[in-house]
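Input.
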Amino acid sequence: MASQLLPSALTDLIDELGKLPGVGARTAERYAYFILKGEARTARSLATSLSSVHERVGQCPVTFALIDADEEVSPLYSDSSRDKTVIAVVEEPLDIIALERTNQFKGTYHVLGGAISPIDGVGPEQLHIPELLERIRADNVDELIIATNASVEGESTALFLQKYIKDAGLNITMSRLARGIPVGVDLEYADQITLSHALEGRRAL
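Output.
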């Protein structure tokens, strides 16, 4: 009934904004009205960014981090000052930003693309685990820091990785971020101090 009281263009915008994670109906309405009240060039700028994001953002074929479409590999991997013998394994690309903000980690990253979650239909075969094995061998990796989230899915993924790598006959040091990160909090939302302590206190598996 409310949709009949609004112009169809505004209703369409509300519907699209409501599809974003964490955005409910009322929040979507506020966002849409804010865009409508603002200057037209702001809306056009937003529309341009949205329409070009898939063409302008690529994925590193080695680390699976997000990169500019015209880059071949992640700058964090090609940087000669980074230690390729140490890899931090994370679930999603934004987790890299969280760890980089600590200014403590000087190794490289590997993005799994999610976590093992049978209820969501995500198994090991959907993650970039075989590619991780290839990197360990190719870069003569000494240490693997499993930095998956402190959740049931993250823990399951960490345990699977530990067994997978040992079964592959790779004799490397594996550690897990210390319990400075509360259970249920994704790396993306953890504060810098908590992440710093977690890196410092990582434990061997």
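Strands lie at 57-59, 66-68, 83-90, 107-111, 143-146, 173-176, 203-204.
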